[in-house]
Amino acid sequence: MDPGKFLSHFDYGKVVEERPNGTSVREYELIAEDKEILVAPGVYYPAWVFNGTVPGPTLRCREGDLLRVTFRNASKHDHTIHFHGIHPANMDGVYEIVPTGGSYTYEYVAEPFGLFLYHCHVMPLRKHISKGLYGAFIVDPPEPREAAREMVMVMNGFDVDFDGENEFYTVNGVANYYLQPGREVKLKTGELVRVYLANLTEFDLINSFHIHANVFRLYRTGTRLDQYEVTDTVMLCQGERSVLEFSYKYPGKYLFHAHQSEFAELGWSGIFEVSAHG
Predict the structure, then answer these.
(1) Cβ(62)–Cβ(18) under 8 Å?
(2) What distance in Å separates the CA atoms of residue 45 and residue 63, rounded to the nearest whole number?
(3) Do residues 83 and 120 touch, judged by C-beta distance below 8 A?
(4) Which residues, given as ranges, of the chain have pLDDT below 70?
(5) What is the pLDDT, as a whole number, of residue 278?
(6) Reading across the β-sheet that carries 229-231, which strands appear in turn?
(7) Closest Cα partner for 119 from 210, 27, 54, 52?
(8) Which stretch of DSSP H or E encloses residue 262?
(9) For the domain with range 3-140, which CATH number is right: 2.60.40.420, 3.40.50.720, 2.40.160.180, 3.40.250.10?
(10) How many angstroms separate the Cα of 144 from the Cα of each of 113, 114, 148, 193?
């Protein structure tokens, strides 16, 4: 897992057909497996992963695209994929349980536009999510949003001693990754930044995001372009997500972190390093 690359990597799938109405047919593959992952310096966790990482890859498409997602289960446990959004009942990933060695293809039209999630929905649900089977899913509006430096941040936690409480909190899977020298998130003054923020933290009711010395436009779920709040902190329950837009006026190093002290101290902190534009 490389949170530096994950931050700005979006999986648009394989386009197999361009349709007359301007939409595309996109094919994706997600593989569930059991894998030990690094969650903090020197700390490993026996996770359940999609395509080798926690979170899984950030899937992306445009509203109206026809999606074909082939799910293969290489884990020792039964799994599914439940996508948030609108789709037929047999594409919902609740009753279509895939056993070890099995596969299932989800096919549906992506709607509406906004920021969504996908995750396993096999019971006990708490375990399948806490072990790592989740990811973000972006459906772009028909007319693109304003050009921006885009990044995805999936908030999560890890219960490494299996006591039902998280010992580490992270954004994009590794505690304090963006706080480490040389791994800060590099920005420029005046640059429009767009963060796709999702909360998949298990065992805690809420998680949060706060930026220092700045405010952001908050588009809840990202399903509307004409309605937003202006704030510097957002609280999200599990499964909730928002699109954040902001730019920095002054150069320097600025913290971003959860506005729960425990979460920030246990790994959910990072730095935006802003340099003067030009």
Answers:
(1) no
(2) 36
(3) no
(4) 278
(5) 62
(6) 168-171, 149-158, 193-199, 241-246, 216-220, 229-231
(7) 54
(8) helix 261-265
(9) 2.60.40.420
(10) 11, 12, 11, 15
At residue 183, the pLDDT reads 97
Whole-number percent of the chain with pLDDT over 90? 99
Among 116, 113, 91, residue whose Cα is nearest residue 104: 91
CATH code of domain 149-275: 2.60.40.420
pLDDT tens-digit profile of 17-66?
A: 999 999 999 999 999 999 999 999 999 999 999 999 999 999 999 999 99
For 138-149, write each residue's pLDDT tens digit: 999 999 999 999
Alpha carbons 92 and 82: distance in angstroms, whole number:
5
In the block, tokens 């001693």 appear at 161
